[in-house]
Amino acid sequence: MPAPVRLPADIVQRLVDAGLDADHVHAVIHAALQEDRGGGVDVTSVAVVPADQRAVADVVARAAGVIAGLPIAAATFVVAGDDQVEVEFLAADGEQVPAGARLLTVSGPARSLLTAERTALNFLAHLSGIATATARWVAEIAGTGAVIRDTRKTTPGLRMLEKYAVRCGGGENHRMSLADAALIKDNHIMAAGGISEAFARVRAMFPEVPVEVECDTLPQVAEAVRAGAQLVLLDNMPPAMVRQAVAMVRDLGAAGRCRLEVSGGLTLAQARAVAETGVQYLAVGSITHSAPVLDVGLDFRAVGSGPPAVG
């Protein structure tokens, strides 16, 4: 089990403000650092860097993008440095930064900074990549009234962080877990013998839970709307069919009750055309499962002298 959270109050507050649980973040960081240490020590840094040497380093964006994960990266340096690392925030999550922008300044034992470097940058690069990809989608459909949402296609163990990065990019989160809402998909429909029966079973057992139904044909959309679905997922439908589904919901008198979400093979090039059909959401799995990392690095700019390492 991870040791108790040993994070400065300002970092904890930043995590709380981001909607993240500090204990969860600490556990993820602890596991990542343990993985990188491999049950031993950072043999390069222990051999090369004097034990009492201190350093000041900057975390720098090598490419332009939207930043996400600064409190997580900062916490990684602090945890690896056993509270001997100090952090100065020079940017904020959700901020669009140019290439070359300094994001954090960290100071403390040089060995600790080097040991934490890759883990901290992995978090920051990955989450900033998600935020940057999300921001591109959000910009593409600006003014349409539609919203970009994520999916559960996330890295196991990192869902809370990745969905936070989506929010930093201007997107919204779909359900965080299987317990948050019901999503009746094709296999559920087959198991129940139909949409209406599947919907009725969910509503009977979990009357307060929002229910979404996945549909790939217009007759299914009509059945889902009549059953009382609050959200219908239009799966792999071309824009022309999506427009028909929007009109169908309106004609059935459910426009204010039932929202529509489009999913399945969406590309950035077609995003605006889909958003302009009148749907409320575009569900984009690629913003989490396929976002390129944002290039970030760590540069030492001051190193204090110390005696040679022993052993």
Description:
The chain is α/β, with parallel strands linked by helices and 311 residues long. It folds into 2 domains: 9-138 and 292-303, Quinolinate phosphoribosyl transferase, N-terminal domain (Aldehyde Oxidoreductase, domain 3), CATH 3.90.1170; 143-289, TIM Barrel (Alpha-Beta Barrel). It is built from 12 helices and 12 strands. It has helices at 9-17, 22-37, 43-48, 70-80, 110-140, 159-168, 186-192, 195-205, 218-227, 239-251, 268-275, 286-289, and strands at 54-61, 65-66, 86-89, 96-97, 102-109, 147-149, 182-184, 211-215, 231-235, 259-263, 281-283, 296-303. The protein has a 6-stranded parallel sheet. The protein has a 4-stranded antiparallel sheet with strand order 3-5-1-12, covered by helices on one side. It has a two-stranded antiparallel sheet with strand order 2-4. The radius of gyration is 23 Å and the shape is elongated. It starts with 8 loop residues before the first helix and ends in an 8-residue tail after the last strand.
